[in-house]
Design a protein that fits this description.
59 residues, mainly alpha, 2 helices, 88% helix, 0% strand, rod-shaped, transmembrane, Flp_Fap, Flp family type IVb pilin, transmembrane helix, membrane
Length: 59
């Protein structure tokens, strides 16, 4: 029984999978935040362009 526990304590494959999962989650979070920021900036620019087109002035 103690041999089984010792093997379980030394096994690091689960820790590696968890680390890769955390890295993937952080990358996904960074992509979502970046896409949100880019989307907001694009929306503001298109609103400004639409306003300029409607009023006939340069943005």
């Amino acid at each position: 029984m103690s041999n089984l526990i010792a093997r379980f304590v030394k096994d690091e494959s689960g820790a590696t999978a968890i680390e890769y999962g955390l890295i993937a989650a952080l990358i996904a979070l960074a992509i979502m935040v970046g896409a949100s920021q880019l989307g907001g900036a694009l929306n503001a620019k298109f609103v400004a362009i639409a306003g300029a087109v409607n009023t006939g002035t340069a943005p």
